[in-house]
Amino acid sequence: MAMTGALSLSQFPLCGSVSLPKRSLPRRSFCIRAMSEVSSTSVSTQEEPKSEASSTSASSVTITPPPNFKPPEPKRFEIRPGQTNEVLGALLPLLFRFATGVFCSGYSFSIVSKDEIPPDQYALEINGITVKETVKLGPRPEKPIELYEFESCPFCRKVREIVAILDLDVLFYPCPRNGPNFRQKVLEMGGKLQFPYMVDPNTGVSMYESDDIIRYLVDKYGDGNVPLALSLGFLTTLTAGLGMLSRIGKGTTYTPAKFPPKPLKLWAYEGSPFCKLVREVLVELELPHLLVSCARGSPKRNILYQKTGTFQAPFLEDPNTGIEMFESAEIVQYLRATYALQ
Predict the structure, then answer these.
(1) Where is the composition biased (Low complexity) (predicted)?
(2) Angle, CA of 93, 97 and 99, to the nearest 5°
(3) What is the pLDDT of residue 58?
(4) Is 107 left (phi over 0), alpha (psi -120 to 50) or beta?
(5) Alpha-carbon separation of residue 212 from 11, 24, 38, 60, 240 (angstroms)
């Protein structure tokens, strides 16, 4: 006997079949600046961007982890004491955006017997129930998409959501206010100080305008359909902006920091409040980072599982120090201690 059910989320139908197994400086007011996206899209062939610092030379600093630093053991679904309010605040965008960015495109699940999943394969387990997840993804780019943006921008969030849905890996170049490195680079490449700005090294295409970037990505690396939650115009931008009220000012303004010789690597996805807390600090410190997208259903969850013996996001790899670690609160502490200039 089988039971089937369907739940429609914002970005795609979420279908499940259940087969019974055999056994900036903070502002006091908030507004959405639609003016940041008023100009037309600029599409051109650009030389591949390089992660070079204009003010703090990567070769002039030494990157070392904090003394006697030891990565913490991963703890599933555990909130560190004192972190509760931050996590709840980071959850607000998820509520306003109806979980957009939590699931990959074409996500579906089925409840199966634990014996159907090989022991070396990742599977979601809840209270002894084994859930098998599948997705339908489009063509994969050979090189990561490059995005110049910052965490607290609602237009940038829209693009990050489609990145999670399409399961794309992205090389992020953070552009916080007063940042000395990448804001000027965007101006030089595109002619406007406007965000987000995308460069696709696979095609040579570069462009401004969040809606145009979303359309380009779904046409090139998806099924050609823009998810409903990202196709509502001003309402999409409004809900993205309202969701940031609880974390207003976070991930906005530059904190003086050492510039890393190599980009960091973060396994994360847009819908996770824990990942958001880490991303805010990466942006404030203007640390370029390769984001390995791993929303629900992503096959990269299994890659991380095989690499570490568990899956949990965020997971940070710092090639500049050799540190690899889970746990968002400790990652934030590590980033500040390692890169922030005292």
Answers:
(1) 41-63
(2) 95
(3) 54
(4) beta
(5) 17, 26, 12, 39, 17
Q: Are 298 and 44 in contact (CB under 8 A)?
A: no
Sheet bearing 170-174, strands edge to edge: 44-45, 205-207, 197-200, 145-149, 170-174, 289-293, 264-268, 315-318, 323-325
**Rounded to whole angstroms, how far apart are CA atoms 165 and 125?**
22
Tokens found for residue 56: 């703090």
- The model's pLDDT over 274-329, given as tens digits with 9 standing for 90+, comes to 999 999 999 999 999 999 999 999 999 999 999 999 999 999 999 999 999 999 99
Quote the CA–CA distance of 191 and 30 in Å, as a whole number.
Answer: 27
The whole-angstrom separation of Cα 22 and Cα 114 is 10
Alpha helices by DSSP H, the chain: 84-96, 154-166, 182-190, 210-221, 234-242, 273-284, 300-308, 328-339
Joined tokens for residue 301: 């969850």
